[in-house]
Amino acid sequence: MATILLLLISIPLIEIYLFIKIGSYIGAFNTISLILITAIVGIIYARYEGFNTLRSGISQLIKNEIPVYEIISGAALTFAALLLILPGFATDLMGLILIFPPTRKLILKNFSKKYTSKNPKKKDYIDGEFEDKDEL
Q1: Which residues neighbour 5 within 8 Å (Cβ) at sequence distance 6 or greater?
Q2: Nearest to 81 by CA among 108, 112, 42, 134
Q3: For residue range 6-65, what is the model confidence (pLDDT) as tens digits?
Q4: Measured between alpha carbons, how far is 39 from 15 in angstroms, rounded to an integer?
Q5: N or C: which terminus of the chain has fewer CB atoms within 10 Å of its end residue's CB?
């Protein structure tokens, strides 16, 4: 809970600091234009990547495979699009990093390593007993 509160306070402070610093170098109009352009281009590219992920997921389903990566990638793309919609340079940078497939794969790979089971005796079956009963 404390981490979420810290993020809710620190992210806007970082964005305000970046607005002031970048705005002092390139001007207020250029700063606002840059934020709008990154949001528009990011959303268009997120839509493109979303359709690619959907297409890949459908091909996985046709092969009778579960599209696990495509589902997780779609959620990451949704989060990246949200970050790009929010005004700010730090959130735009995080969103752009998540949108590009090589960096998204790298991040998701590291994230999945962190949360996978480390049990070496993992079973792919369920032990159980059964009994046949004749109907009378």
Answers
A1: none
A2: 42
A3: 888 898 899 999 999 999 999 989 999 998 998 888 888 888 888 988 898 899 889 988
A4: 15
A5: C
Neighbours of 113 (CB within 10 A): 9
- Across 74-87, b (16+ Cβ under 10 Å) vs e yields bebbeebbebbebe
Q: Specify the DSSP class assigned to residue 93.
A: H
Q: How many CB atoms lie within 10 A of CB 41?
A: 13
Domain boundaries, the chain: 19-108
Question: How far is residue 73's CA from residue 60's CA, in Å, rounded to a whole number?
Answer: 14
Short-list 95, 91, 97, 57, CA closest to 74: 57
pLDDT of amino acid 121: 58
Q: Give the containing element (helix H, strand E) for 26.
A: helix 2-26
Q: Tokens at residue 1, please? A: 């809970």
Amino acid at position 60, single letter: Q
Residue 4 has pLDDT above 80, yes or no: yes
Residue 125 in 3-state DSSP? Answer: coil
For residue 47, give the amino acid letter.
Answer: R
